[in-house]
Amino acid sequence: MKKGSITKFKLNPKKPPKTDWRAFDAMTEEQRHRAAVSDPDAPPATEAQLARTRRARKLRLRKWCPFM
Fold first, then answer.
1. Cα separation, 39 vs 32, whole angstroms
2. 42 with 50: CB under 8 angstroms?
3. CB 9 within 8 A of CB 17
4. Rounded to whole angstroms, how far apart are CA atoms 43 and 27?
5. Residue 12: predicted pLDDT
6. Are 37 and 44 in contact (CB under 8 A)?
7. For residues 4-43, b (16+ Cβ closer than 10 Å) or e, as one string?
8. Which helix (H) or strand (E) holds 20?
9. DSSP symbol at 35
10. Percent composition of the chain: helix, strand, coil (DSSP 3-state, to 5)
11. pLDDT (tens digit, 9 = 90+) per residue, 9-42?
12. 62 versus 55: which is more confidently predicted?
């Protein structure tokens, strides 16, 4: 892996993210779906795309693995 290809990010407890979860919780499923469909940066997957997906395998890590 190239050095610098991983971005690390820590949340500042004094400045939490500005996500308004109360507004999200107040939305109906239909409103959430409409909002997701209208977002040009992250459109929902189509049925054809979902049909091509494969389940990811579980990796079995060994005790000597340096990443654990």
1. 11
2. no
3. no
4. 19
5. 85
6. yes
7. eeeeeeeeeeeeeeeeeeeeeeeeeeeeeeeeeeeeeeee
8. none
9. H
10. 30, 0, 70
11. 888 888 888 888 899 999 999 999 999 889 999 8
12. 55
Tokens of residue 27, six digits: 């939305």
Tokens of 41: 């940066």
DSSP SS3 for 37: helix
Q: Which two tokens stand for residue 10?
A: 């820590």
Instruction: Read off φ and ψ for residue 36, nearest 5 degrees.
Output: -65, -40
Mean pLDDT across the chain: 82
Q: What is the largest CA-CA distance in the chain?
A: 48
Residues in the chain: 68
Alpha-carbon span 2 to 20, nearest angstrom: 36
The pTM for the full model equals 0.45
